[in-house]
């Protein structure tokens, strides 16, 4: 099968001054994943490495570009899934980890679990030899400015959600195996401990060799209401489109 990879840098608007950097970032991510596939690599490695590129690019709301929670800290979620056997790994509300997507893969391959969160995920990362990074190294000037602005009495945090989004990738390799990977810093000024759709299997991503692979982005709570990633694949199975019965706020996100 001809290998293919598709990446996204998040839903929403992109300000003019950030267009070039954002476009360059997704191109580099796509090329990183595609080069793995072109050399005979598997879909799982391709989507992981593509997402790593975006986690390390401050233009995106993932890794070092993540938005801040209500306390001014970075808390991140990520998921990865192998369509060959439905294996999946995820982490949520993790801090001080440069590449949450890599930790999610370790959860998938080194534990009997699918999701680890917060301190449990951090303890697992230490056990796996994953280095912590100082939390401030993940905070960009832009994220800090947004956080401060949202603390003002007349601010509207929802307005800033329109130009920030989760990143992700889906791929199919030479063997016909598919995979997905999704990573995010979540919502700006979110409550401490808030976990959105990204880390939830079937919401932030889903991959099944019999159908396809999906990585979602948008308003997490709306996505979770309908388990969007799995819903998309269900409609692909039915040779149908997105259900007209989807909640109005979800329709606006798609």
TrEMBL record:
It comes from the Eukaryota. It catalyses: Cleavage of a beta-linked Asp residue from the N-terminus of a polypeptide; L-asparagine + H2O = L-aspartate + NH4(+). Transmembrane segments: none annotated. It holds the Pfam family Asparaginase_2. InterPro entries: ASRGL1_meta, Ntn_hydrolases_N, Peptidase_T2. Its EC number is 3.4.19.5, 3.5.1.1. It is an enzyme of class 3 (hydrolase). Signal peptide: none annotated. Keywords: Autocatalytic cleavage, Hydrolase, Protease. Belongs to the Ntn-hydrolase family. This is Isoaspartyl peptidase/L-asparaginase. The gene is ASRGL1.
């Amino acid at each position: 099968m001809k290998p293919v990879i598709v990446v996204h840098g998040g839903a929403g608007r992109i300000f003019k001054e950030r267009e070039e950097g954002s476009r360059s970032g997704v191109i580099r991510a796509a090329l990183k994943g595609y080069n793995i596939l072109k050399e005979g690599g598997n879909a799982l490695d391709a989507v992981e490495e593509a997402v790593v590129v975006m986690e390390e690019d401050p233009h995106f709301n993932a890794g070092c570009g993540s938005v801040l929670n209500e306390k001014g800290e970075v808390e991140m979620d990520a998921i990865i899934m192998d369509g060959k056997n439905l294996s999946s790994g995820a982490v949520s509300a993790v801090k001080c980890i440069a590449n949450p997507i890599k930790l999610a893969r370790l959860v998938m391959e080194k534990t009997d679990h699918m999701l680890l969160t917060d301190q449990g995920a951090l303890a697992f990362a230490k056990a796996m030899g994953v280095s912590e990074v100082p939390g401030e190294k993940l905070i960009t000037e832009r994220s800090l400015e947004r956080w401060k602005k949202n603390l003002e009495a007349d601010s509207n945090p929802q307005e800033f959600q329109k130009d920030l989004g989760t990143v992700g990738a889906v791929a199919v390799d030479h063997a016909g195996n598919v995979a997905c990977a999704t990573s995010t810093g979540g919502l700006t000024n979110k409550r401490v401990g808030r976990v959105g759709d990204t880390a939830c299997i079937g919401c932030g991503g889903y991959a099944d060799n019999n159908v396809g692979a999906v990585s979602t982005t948008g308003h997490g709570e709306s996505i979770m209401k309908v388990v969007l990633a799995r819903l998309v694949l269900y409609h692909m199975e039915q040779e149908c489109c997105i259900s007209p019965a989807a909640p109005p706020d979800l329709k606006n996100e798609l």
